[in-house]
């Protein structure tokens, strides 16, 4: 075990601002949405909550925490009242948090106002129990933690932290965040809009908005290639960026994080299943068919592996539902890789070689990520398959708790035409439909179209513009 002096050295290593001459490393000047959510949570005067930031590896959770630390220091918070620790460090696991906390308390009286920042908290033993204890016994403590296994973090919150902390889900970069970082912007003159606001725009207002965003296609193309992970933005070589993404994200999660968190013994089998899902991202997944193709994989094992991949934030699951009372087929799940760049990197596919079909599936996954980020906490999000002579699918339905819904169909191709017989056209005539969007490929492919009399118009909007301006304004 470490001596007391070694534990103190570890703490000073993680908290350089405790030294008079110590400084933080240079941090990005652009602040993501999660930064503002963390600050508002831990500084709220109305309700005291700890903030738990959840998301995949290498998406910038630690950077967000350190930006918050820098802001607190700028506001005059005493440096030793700000405590940072990463449980990804093997020494932290060896020493244990209780002893580390005891050493810190010996340095700074615990009765004073404190700000704790704890990275990768899922690696700490019994983390949810002692987090509850910290909340209950230290009324002057504000705490932020990060975790890369979302449902495990959320289960801990449900078991021990009801009313004590707020889970903040952080995706890979949204397209707007990517553009802000790429162009070093602190904000943009182009606003953000909810689906309702877009649906209520006049044709003239909508056209003016689309014309103002006609020059972002080059940024969109690079974002699709590797824009979801902040550290890759400055790398010019796409093959090199993909190699780093495989090594720093996929390999570490599949071969280290998931096996250690969930006691997975066959990491090669897990990797094969993930690669299969990458290849079929955006498709309805037939579990029985996967078991047939993957030798030695049983249905219970496959179910567990998919859950682990979800918990590690490598995939999303989109379920089938109907908020309008239509008859639907038996429920099957669609699965999306959590970031388009991750899918390309793991399959070692150059974006330039993607077929139109593959590119359409890729963009569909990007649209889903943006809808999930904007509406996942306030609406029901799924896809629709109507039952009739032919299967008719609507890619996404975003339903309010009261049942009204918005519809989104992705047609990322040069010919994005739809007919009166398409499912989205039928649903636009229903009273429960508040708006409908056709996500297109080309910057000039936008406008309003009404397929049926007295039906809601279908708004054609380029994918780049849709993802850039999307915001629920309700979360």
Structure description:
This protein is of the alpha/beta class and 475 residues long. The protein has helices at residues 4-14, 33-42, 61-74, 90-95, 97-107, 127-137, 150-160, 175-182, 195-199, 203-211, 217-226, 238-262, 267-279, 287-293, 299-311, 340-347, 356-375, 423-428, 463-469; strands spanning 50-54, 82-86, 114-119, 141-147, 165-169, 315-318, 334-337, 380-386, 392-399, 405-410, 433-440, 447-449, 458-462. It contains 19 helices and 13 strands. A 6-stranded mixed beta sheet has the order 8-9-10-11-13-12. Strands 2-3-4-1-5 form a 5-stranded parallel beta sheet, sandwiched between helices. Helix 6 crosses helix 7, helix 12 (238-262) crosses helix 13 and helix 12 packs across helix 16. The protein is globular, with a radius of gyration of 24 Å. 40% of the residues are buried.
Please outline what is shown here.
The chain is an alpha/beta fold and 475 residues long.
Keywords:
single chain; six-stranded mixed beta sheet; 475 residues; alpha/beta
Cα-atom Rg, whole angstroms? 24 Å
Give the strand line-up of the largest sheet: 8-9-10-11-13-12
Q: Can you count the beta strands?
A: 13
Helical amount: 40-55%
Categorize the overall geometry. globular
This entry's quaternary arrangement is single chain
Distance between the termini: 46 Å
- Beta-strand content estimate: 15-25%
What is the number of helices? 19
Contiguous low-pLDDT stretches (5 residues minimum) are: 323-330
**Would you tell me the overall average pLDDT?**
86
Structural class: alpha/beta
Biggest sheet statistics: 6 strands, mixed
């Amino acid at each position: 075990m470490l001596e007391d002096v070694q534990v103190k050295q570890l703490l000073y290593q993680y908290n350089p601002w405790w030294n008079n001459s110590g400084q933080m490393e240079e941090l990005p000047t652009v602040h993501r949405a999660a930064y503002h959510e963390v600050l508002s949570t831990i500084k709220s005067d109305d309700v005291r909550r700890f903030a738990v930031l959840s998301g995949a590896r290498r998406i910038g959770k630690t950077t967000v925490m350190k930006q918050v630390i820098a802001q607190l220091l700028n506001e005059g918070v005493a440096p030793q009242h700000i405590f940072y620790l990463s449980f990804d460090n093997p020494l932290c696991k060896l020493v244990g948090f209780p002893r580390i906390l005891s050493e810190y308390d010996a340095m700074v009286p615990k009765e004073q106002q404190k700000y704790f920042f704890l990275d990768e908290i899922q690696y700490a033993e019994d983390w949810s129990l002692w987090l509850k204890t910290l909340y209950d016994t230290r009324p002057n403590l504000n705490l932020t933690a990060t975790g890369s296994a979302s449902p495990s973090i959320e289960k801990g919150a449900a078991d021990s932290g009801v009313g004590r902390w707020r889970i903040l889900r952080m995706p890979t970069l949204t397209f707007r965040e990517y553009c802000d970082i790429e162009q070093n912007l602190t904000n943009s003159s182009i606003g953000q809009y909810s689906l309702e606001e877009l649906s209520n725009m006049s044709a003239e207002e909508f056209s003016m908005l689309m014309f103002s965003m006609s020059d972002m296609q080059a940024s969109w193309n690079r974002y699709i290639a590797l824009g979801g992970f902040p550290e890759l933005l400055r790398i010019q070589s796409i093959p090199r960026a993909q190699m780093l993404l495989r090594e720093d994200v996929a390999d570490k999660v599949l071969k280290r994080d998931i096996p250690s968190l969930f006691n997975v013994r066959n990491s090669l089998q897990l990797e094969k299943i993930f690669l299969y899902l990458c290849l079929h991202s955006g498709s309805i997944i037939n579990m029985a068919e996967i078991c047939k193709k993957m030798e030695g994989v049983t249905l219970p094992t496959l179910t567990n592996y998919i859950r682990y991949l979800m918990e590690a934030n490598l995939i999303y699951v989109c379920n089938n539902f109907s908020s309008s009372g239509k008859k639907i087929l038996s429920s099957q799940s669609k699965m999306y890789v959590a970031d388009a760049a991750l899918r390309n990197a793991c399959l070692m596919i150059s974006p330039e070689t993607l077929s139109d079909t593959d590119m359409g599936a890729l963009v569909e996954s990007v649209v889903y990520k943006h809808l999930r980020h904007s509406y996942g906490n306030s609406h029901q999000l799924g896809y629709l398959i109507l039952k009739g002579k032919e299967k008719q699918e609507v890619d996404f339905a975003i339903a309010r708790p009261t049942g009204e819904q918005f519809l989104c169909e992705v047609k990322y191709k040069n010919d994005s035409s739809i007919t009166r017989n398409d499912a989205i056209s039928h649903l636009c005539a229903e009273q429960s439909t508040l708006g409908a969007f056709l996500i297109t490929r080309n910057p000039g492919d936008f406008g309003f179209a009404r397929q049926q009399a007295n039906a809601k118009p279908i708004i054609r909007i380029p994918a780049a513009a849709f993802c850039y301006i999307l915001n629920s304004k309700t979360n």
